[in-house]
Give the backbone structure.
Amino acid sequence: MIIGVPKEIKDHETRVGITPAGVKALAEAGHKVLVETHAGELSAFTDDEYQTAGAEIVGSAHNVWANADMVVKVKEPVEKEYGFFRPDLTLFTYLHLAPLPELTDQLLQKKVTGIAYETIRDRNNALPLLTPMSEVAGRMSVQVGATYLEKEKGGRGLLLGGVPGVMPANVCIIGGGIVGTNAAKIALGMGAKVTLVDLNLNRLRELDDIFNGRVFTLASNSYNVAQTTREADLVIGGVLIPGAAAPKIVTAAMVAKMKKGAVIVDVAIDQGGCIETARPTTHSNPSYEVNGVVHYCVTNMPAAVPNTSTLALTNATFPYVLKIAQLGAKKAILSDDGTAEGVNTYAGTLTYEAVAQSQGKQYQAIRTLLA
């Protein structure tokens, strides 16, 4: 198979889909890898390293997309890349289609096989390709929040952990999954007072054990969310429904009652966000204010630390890349239910229910379609 690795062109997206180590493994398995010039440069992987590993360095994105059987990316394609779509193409990347009907329509019209990192499941029914970036984003959310609490950034002028004689900041984390757990680790490490809100009482019990009672846990309902966000200096949104638009847990009315200069970091923004006042931002223009509350809603937060993020991501994605390369997309999908869960579009048909529900479209399960 010919695998293409284009350079990411989304605003300030600095990660890359395959590392030189991945190229070497693919080449040793008999596959050809086309890497766009400087594709890995911002992740600290040079063209020379890719070439030494066995890749062919290609000068333009067009040549990568036009000649590859499978394109491996990091982020969902942007409008400039829609023209590269074609019926015999397999696209393996984060897609996050629920809030992106235009991209969904393009994939369907061009009959692209779109396999999304974020909906693939493993034998434990977990999301193995979403986990590493959720870990990075969860940890980063506290770093970012601490920075934006500084007066210079529009915040309340608080040091997250306080100092002796001065209370630390209150951090409210919405969602006790991978993002929330990793955010809580860093917030506790920095000395903040942390409250973690989740619907699942069993998960709250687990988190209470994990953090030895140092995190305050709270059952999620509108009353509790309103109260804890009103008291919070930093609110981190980390709610996920796989493949679907995130539910709006924190309403605009709740945000209006938050402290002036408080900060919101909505990590769920690439699925539409779980804060009603959140809208997607970029690393070029990352924040804005609503009712005096600073909002940071960058859709590709891990791109700020691309070397760490690329290595963490490709550790998880590469076995799937190799499997699809070895078997071809159709056989790889049929061979594994978890991989089949990753298929969002196939031969002009939408195949993921949560995306269909979010966009009011019809869908057909991939196994039914292939049968």
